[in-house]
Amino acid sequence: MVNTINPEGENDKPFAVGILFFQQNPQDSHCTASVISTNDGNTGITAAHCLYDTDTGCFSDHLKFCPGYDNGKESRYGCVAVIKANIPTDYINHSVSDYATLKWSRILIVTFGYPQDGDMNCAEDRRTFCSWRGNASKENDSSVPLECVPPFLGHGSSGDPWLIKNSPPNNFGYLIGITSFAFTKTCSDI
């Protein structure tokens, strides 16, 4: 069947779809999973039989979702651990409703900059190069997409890069955003 909506982009790789690696009985296996549009951005869906074997009554473990995985390689977004799975009892008891929802962990980032104050563990004198590593979380009460980090990065941190898949000593990674400030009660409460 030809893609009549976007025939030129038929082989485009949507990063909302990826491979779900897991172990079942205890062999390595995989299925396809995709991201669901939710407020937190950390929810997905797959087939329930990928997570539960009705013949043995065993649940899969060591679940890892890799969005945009292609040709044996991770995309620039890497992989995230699945921290929770919900399987309908209809599937477990009667092998119907073959779907399951997934929840994956937050995105680990690193940011760098030259703050003059804030909560980064460094000299905070506007001259010292500082870094912070941790999890970004999505701001649910915002009318625009907004990611937050728990510490106050400090004045002078505006423009700091947010990198994923960063590895010392060269600190290369993939830029996914920059530090900007929004005055909201909920971000400071993370």
UniProtKB/TrEMBL annotation:
InterPro entries (UniProt xref): Peptidase_S1_PA (IPR009003), Peptidase_S1_PA_chymotrypsin (IPR043504), TRYPSIN_HIS (IPR018114)
SUPFAM superfamilies per UniProt: Trypsin-like serine proteases (SSF50494)
Superkingdom of the source species: Eukaryota
GO molecular function ontology, one term from the record: serine-type endopeptidase activity
GO BP: any one term: proteolysis
This protein's name: 20955_t:CDS:1
Organism from which the protein derives: Dentiscutata erythropus
